[in-house]
Specification:
heterodimer, A: alpha+beta, five-stranded mixed sheet, four-stranded antiparallel sheet, about 35% helix, B: about 290 residues, alpha/beta
Amino acid sequence: MQDAQVDALLAAAEAGVACDGLEVTTGPEGYALTVDGERHEGLDGDGIRAIAADHPRYVENWHFWASAVPAGEDRRAFLRWLEDLPAGTEPATETSAAAEGGPEAPTILDRLDHGVQATWGQLHVSVSHAGGGRRSYALTHVEDAPVSEDGGESTLETFEDPLDARQIAKRDDRERYRPLSTAPTLSTGWLFPSLTADDLVRAVEAFYPATIPNWHRERVGDLDVTHWTQTARRQTGIYDVVEELPQEAVDWVAEACCVDSQCLKRREWQYDDESDVAVDGGEGTFPCREPCSLVVAAARKWAILESETERTYEFELTPSEKHQLEELIDAVADGRVDEIREADVNDGANRYRARYLRAKRLDEDGELPDASDGTE
Amino acid sequence: MQALVIVAHGSHLNPGSSAPTFEHADTIRATGAFDEVREAFWKEEPHFREVLRTVAADELYVVPLFISEGYFTEQVIPRELRLEDWSVEDWESPDGITATHATYEATDVDKTVHYAGPAGTHEAMSDVIVRRAESVTGDPDVGDGFGLAVVGHGTNRNEHSARAIEYHAERIRERGRFEEVKALFMDEEPEVDDVTDYFESDDVVVVPLFVADGYHTQEDIPEDMGLTEDYRQGWETPATVDGHRIWYAGAVGTEPLTADVLLERAADAGADVGDAIERVREETRVDAPGTAD
């Protein structure tokens, strides 16, 4: 513990300190200090110093939370959540660990010696103690965790600048552009071995923008959900048409785009204040408070397509060919086309099977001839 | 605390669309002028709708990295940022090129939002166009014997867009640095397709007033000007067309000095940017051949 940390503690006492088992207040009788479950009253500065010297870990831990975390209640709450600690608010008004039933500073720092792990979407965070109460954060893909402490035989590419996360997040493992940050397609093979609290928050916000503030808003009961009809009504220009999408189609939009296999956010928006979307919102850690720009853009396409009138077609297909069409739709919808083996002709979405069906059933324009009227 | 929020279009399809925004944000971040610098997009994340809550600062300077006043800067961005009582009249820009800033509360966060006019209509963008001419020719003194074409969409797309092009062309022309300066358009006369008809000078620098490179700047314009038959095969810089050497610069918004315009916009809106403007102007300048360190 450094003298400067105790100096800072004395300076902060005026406003009141309460952090993970350490409490300091001032009054006419001097300082009052509670640490390790014991309360000491009527202390002067030297009295505080003497007791603090016997309990350095409390002071070091407090000093980290008081001075080494980024501004913003949401970011602080996120950093404490990573360590499974009560959120607290600002340093001065933070509820004591005892009141919230949380662990005390020595226990907290001991835990960090072994590394405390947390998952945020596809991000894996490992928090460790960098000495003097300071934390060091290692950030990697969940599939690449756990990372050995010395980074030893790791083959992961290492990064230091948290803003490099913007580039990592741009493309998936197949180098395809990821327009949706929270799609479960984050690339693997990278590691930020040692970030400060500030830089960890920056990196997380670059990987998953706005997830921390929205998660926090939800925790404190202040998440401003915007339902489908509100978002649709607000659109102008080419997206004006989105409003015309029928209610049942909104269920299909959510099933297509917003389930866990497509997006790691947990959908909290519904059709409107009264009607829910008839699809599960998912299990994600952080909420989705409003249809995103991808959903709006896709919904525009569906709104235009849904304006067509249904009609009856007549095609000749064997039962197996009908089943094959269903398999083809499934394979594309589940993104498994690339997994189908070259010679696996038992799979209806196999390329040879699809080419055979095309050769047999589609005309020279690539259309399925409609037997009912002789056109398509 | 003060934060700069750069708002740009972004893309669901083109991964490079956000690159200039990120680069300029990094340049400004490095000056330390703002406690936070954040990028936000219409088509990427954070979306305009959620960006204000991602910064801890309570004084926010929002600068659109857009070329002209119009649909996005006047309707979409203020609506999505939830600027309370926004009215385009607050910008006091009846001509569509003189917006500076106006100040609002946003309805979802307890912050003050200074909403600035777009980068593209700031007078400093004239300097970026000139700088772009310097960087594409590699000559910090380019001008003698050179013509300069500033290219934009025409009025078919946005009436203010053409005005912004003419505004910068006029300002640069008045400086007398280039032999000739013309405003050319993609969908109205004078058209960029006929670029060589409009210049006497053998050498012509062509600078499109676009934020990011994409379909128009990398496919349409190069083919229309005759730099190449097929954009996929690329083109020479300079390329010879009808006896003129055409120095095609690509989107002006990719020029590093664009960061300066964003800073100027924020400063005009009341941000304390210290010496950041001077520093960015110095750091992004084009060195004469052989003097680069």
